[in-house]
Known about the structure:
Chain A is α+β, with helices and mostly antiparallel strands. Chain A is built from five helices and five strands; from the N terminus they run ββαβββαααα. In chain A, strands 2-1-5-3-4 form a five-stranded mixed β-sheet, with helices on both faces. In chain A, a hairpin with a 2-residue loop joins β3 and β4.
Amino acid sequence: MKKELRLTVNGQPYELYIKPKTLLVEALRDQLGLTGTKRGCNESACGACTVILNGMAVKSCSILALQADGGEVLTVEGLARGTELHPLQKAFLDYGAFQCGFCTPGMLMSATALLDENPKPTKEQIKEGIDGNICRCTGYNSIIRAVTAVVKGEYKEEK
Amino acid sequence: MIKDFKYLAPKTLKEALTLLDKYQDDCKVIAGGQSLLVLMRQGLVTPKYLIDIKGLSELSYIKSDTKGGLKIGALTTHREIEKSPKMRDGFVVLAEMENRLASIQTRNWGTIGGNLCHADPAGDPAPVLVALNAALRMASLNGERTMPVEDFCLDYFETALEHNELLTEIQVPAIPPYTGAAYTKFNVIESDLATVGVAVSVTLRSDDGICQDVRIALGAAAPTPIRAKKAEAVLRGKKITNNLIKEAGEIASTEAEPISDIYASAEYRRELIKVLVKRVGKEALARAKQA
């Protein structure tokens, strides 16, 4: 039997009818068409499905969508302001912080959650902030450089 | 692929216990689901009813009790414990343990009670709670009971909870004076489970620094978290020296019954226990001297 789910995703309210076994990542990708959030390992290891739920980075493959009922979700699609990329997105581009790009949405969401909580993290804290996200191309250094650039104020967010 | 189930989200503990009492073996309780959903996806757990208690805010808290101990609600997330200002002095080992548990994402959603009830012998909280002599409170419609964390796990993924019971609270007693506790685990990737985890708590006598009490708990070393009681006996009542700690580690490794799996052979795990008991024991001792 399907259940009702109310979610606010990237500021937009949605009302869905889903099977209880639907995972948050499935609701976002398959029901709402927000395919920026990636389904990677599907077992809470790789972090590609990371989204921000009620202000916290979580792995959307390991949460039932119904557990997010009434919650606010931010996905990678919600980072940019119109055509203006988020400072982290700009930095990722400039610092070549991705190759295949599959881990990028998850990395961006983990980095966003980190900077929301601690705008001035040290290099060690940046590493800790993304240690739930696996990248198999870049070797992480370029990602850490990109986040560091934002922390240093190279990319001021335009209001 | 997860098998379909009927989803129930009780609003109160009482409602949850009523549902649990009604469905017993046909149901499974989900808290953060960080371990359970993996098992459900693999088809290893296929409940008819899933009782979602994640929303029971009455079970999410960290309080100090009147005797200087801590009471932690079963649905408190790992991240809340890690960041809590109450995790200071002797309790800092709990925050340190949580900081190394899985990834931030998992800690944000996963709960300490869920972790304990999952009863993976490689879990991080249980060895630390055993070393701190913590107890668990459980509730059912018939009433409540408490038991030491040490007795809670019966086998791999099996606990002492009855089918109609819910874990409600973790009770950590006050840390005695001149006590130090430490925990570490060996793992290849920081967000992995422990290949072996070791927690040690040492209490020294104030006048002469003799080891008055010691608890050594091992994770991923047997089907359940275990205490290395023979190793403890080596240290208890003595002035702890480096040689004595080394001996305790060697004895602890013989008390363990580790398995071989993709992460490590049983032999390698025994070697790790020797090294980690020595390392963590020294750290706990240093902390006890400063306490």
